């Protein structure tokens, strides 16, 4: 939370934006703009080499604050100590392999690394580098060390890198980095640090022919809110997204699927080694028994009936695997139940049938839940507990779910 000023009043959140020497440094300008336009006081601390990509005048103009790169500048203000001491958040974007290594080993050869050593606030790293550098054992060990110490290290995105190369190593979208930072500044606890979570989101589509499908109205907003809040609380997140048209949450591994069978396969593979699985996706209960290989034409005759078969119940399968001691089997299993009537009665029956620890039951319908920015729910637990969540932003509901999950992990 922002540090109060000397009169005890809430102060403007003070953010240190560290910028290391990577081609993605230019994207940090957008991140800086998002901070300043939302009322944050930002001090940019680039490495000297980072200024070869974006110059000091740009950072100063966009932040409205002086830019310092050397511990020997303005020595009377002791910047190598004071900048980190006064920060409410330090975010390094892009964070190169070099800066991650220095931070993990406590090296302090410039102002940025000194700031990282003196900061007692949350620290977020947004790495950007070539795939080979990100996957190198030294980098993986450094990332693990930083996460163990409580820093949030976002996984880089997959996409086009420098030159013709593509792969994992791209800086996440600045807007998504900002969303993580905003939630961290909001006081989210780092109670999921070191935990691996799997989240499903969106709605599956079951093909009738190459053009038509059976689907539902789920937008994926609630599942993505769960992913973003988990990331801000320090978790490593795998997001299995079914037909979602939303930007990838910064730091999440996103696996895109279409049908219920594809979602099942992706979830069962992703939960290997996971601590938690949250099934927030709206999975179709049925699928056509056969898919036409070509578009079904409209003729004078009535169309043939579409014979439906049941899809696997993925949430119930996860619960059954755990009861039987099969692997993979996460410690905490949570599900979502969308109901139109008899909400609590149907929810309690589903909780008993599915074998999960938590079931988030919400009413859906016209302007309720699907595609809306807010949600209300009742969370039922296997031990008989009940938590009512009033209507509010979907990220608030997500945080309550993670509170309940963290209590079971603890």
Task: Please describe what this structure looks like.
The protein is α/β, with parallel strands linked by helices and 410 residues long. The protein folds into 2 domains: 14-185, 3-Layer(aba) Sandwich (Rossmann fold), CATH 3.40.50; 196-409, 3-Layer(aba) Sandwich (Rossmann fold), CATH 3.40.50.10300. The protein contains 13 helices and 19 strands. It has helices at 28-37, 56-63, 79-85, 97-104, 111-118, 131-135, 137-148, 174-185, 221-232, 260-270, 314-323, 343-354, 394-409, and strands at residues 14-19, 41-46, 89-95, 123-127, 152-153, 157-160, 166-170, 196-202, 206-207, 213-214, 236-242, 253-257, 276-279, 286-288, 308-310, 332-339, 358-363, 374-381, 386-393. The strands form 5 sheets. Strands 12-11-8-13-16-17-18-19 form an 8-stranded mixed sheet, sandwiched between helices. Helix 1 links the parallel strand 1 (14-19) and strand 2. Helix 3 (79-85) packs across helix 5 and helix 9 (221-232) crosses helix 13 (394-409). The chain is elongated and about 80 Å long. Mean pLDDT is 90; it is low at 4-10.
Structural class: alpha/beta
What is the CA-based Rg, rounded? 24 Å
The average pLDDT is: 90
| Biggest sheet record | 8 strands, mixed
Extended strand count: 19
Number of helices: 13
Query: How many domain regions?
Result: 2
CATH architecture of the largest domain: 3-Layer(aba) Sandwich
Strand order of the largest sheet: 12-11-8-13-16-17-18-19
Main attributes of the structure:
EC 4.1.1.36, Rossmann fold, 32% helix, alpha/beta, CoaB-like_sf, 2 domains, elongated, 410 residues
